[in-house]
Amino acid sequence: MTKRKVLKPGIAAGINSGCPFCLARTTGLPKVKDRIQILTDYRAALKGTVVETPPSISLRKGEFLVQFDHDRPEIQQKVSLERDLILIGFTSEEPIPIWAPPITLREATELDNAVIQFCQRGFSGNRWKPHLLSFYEIIKRVWSKRLPVEAKEVWAILEAHGVPQLYKKRLTELFHDGRNLLEYAIGRKPIKKKGVPPVLS
After folding, report:
1. Closest alpha carbon to 201 in 61, 109, 93
2. pLDDT tens readout for residues 73-89
3. For labelling, which of 42, 63, 106, 158 has a CA lying 20 to 30 Å from the CA of 149?
């Protein structure tokens, strides 16, 4: 009997809410000819096809070669499941979740990482209790990156990842006041709204 993998807090709810990052966190090693899309770091949004690995190239565990669409045919790049979040077999018909904030894919990945950490530290023994230091990290990330994300948008992300409704008022007020305090004390107001690039198109 195959042992069922237990998903960490935040990830299961995120998958049910259509979060591409949570889906990518459960991704296994792709097969040759699979289409993939990178969600993280400087290669965020790049798409390509998994190719055979020549005997002359040594790969670590969890690594594979990809021919990205924008590269010349003779150029392939290594991708690692340890450092990269990827989507396998994406389609253009899959919509962006309605709760997705109006920020770039790379920024959204980093913010989602902070949200997952908050969920994992706030859920223990089948009970929720907000881990405030982790929530401060969310506030800090939004402020430091000057993301045009308001309290209601942060709550939409939290709710999509399973944070109970009873914490909505407390966390939205804390986010609003915390970011305003940072802006007043140090500066760095949000930059103007940016369109969300199509994650799956």
Report:
1. 93
2. 899 999 999 999 999 98
3. 42
Give the span between the Cα atoms of 51 and 63, in whole angstroms: 12
| 79, 66 Cβ separation under 8 angstroms | yes
What is the sign of the dihedral through the CA atoms of 8, 10, 14 and 16? positive
CA–CA distance, 34 with 8 (Å, rounded to integer): 26
- Sketch the domain layout of the chain as residue ranges: 11-88, 105-185
Q: For 13-64, how does the pLDDT look when each residue is reduced to its tens digit (9 = 90+)?
A: 999 999 999 999 988 899 999 999 999 888 888 999 999 999 999 999 999 9
Candidates 104, 97, 102; CA nearest to 161 is 97
DSSP code at position 103: S
